[in-house]
Amino acid sequence: MSAEPLVAIDNVSFSYDRRPILKGISLTIPKGKVVAIMGGSGCGKTTLMRLINGQIKPSKGTVKVAGQIVPELDSEGLYLLRRKMGMLFQFGALFTDMSVYDNVAFQMREHTELPESMIRDLVLMKLNAVGLRGAAKLMPSELSGGMARRVALARAIALDPTLIMYDEPFAGLDPISLGVIGKLIRELNDALGATSIMVTHSVSESLAIVDYVYFVSEGKVVAEGTPDEIRASEEPFVHQFVGGLPDGPVPFQYPAKSYAEELMGVRSA
Length: 269
Hints:
269 residues; alpha/beta; Rossmann fold; six-stranded mixed β-sheet; four-stranded antiparallel β-sheet; 37% helix; globular
């Protein structure tokens, strides 16, 4: 891993009310790399993304992005930092009452003073990068799921962000669209010289494009490594997750008393 990470999370803990989500977690995201954060539902993956973009503050530990301590930034500083970030939300989250063109132009109009003629050129450039320049006039309701995700990706890179974050970018996609999105994530990251973080459950698709993986379980990093190291891992949770096994450290059965005892109890009732 790089000695100069873009994102550094050091010994971070976080709780919702009294329910601990993250428990002294540490990880680094090097500049220019695509890094996946994997783990089961509720393990703290999305919470990590919210800490990185400053939506929430850790109860303990340090979150740094581009050398800045995120929880210490005032509103203006946080606003400026977020302008350097792009976000691809789960299922795209396009503005349904705006055309494809206007969805991509939105950030440029909100955060810059560029003339409309230049915005037009930039929007068409971003749409061309995701293969949808010809769909500029369509409305989100006229798009397939894969096309909508590609428009959302064009919107995420509208301001040439330093850091791009993806929340379950492969969710709900057919195999062809899934392959297209994976290819675009890798190619756009390299073309922009950006750094990408993916929160995902999609093992095979992610391992094909990322540089490094962190596995999170119960609020802690339980394994990390390159895709090849993760595939070869003998750590029980990683083995179960990568193999899609129904039982293991994450049990199939929800904790309960003995099945036989419960049946006997029902009969004697």
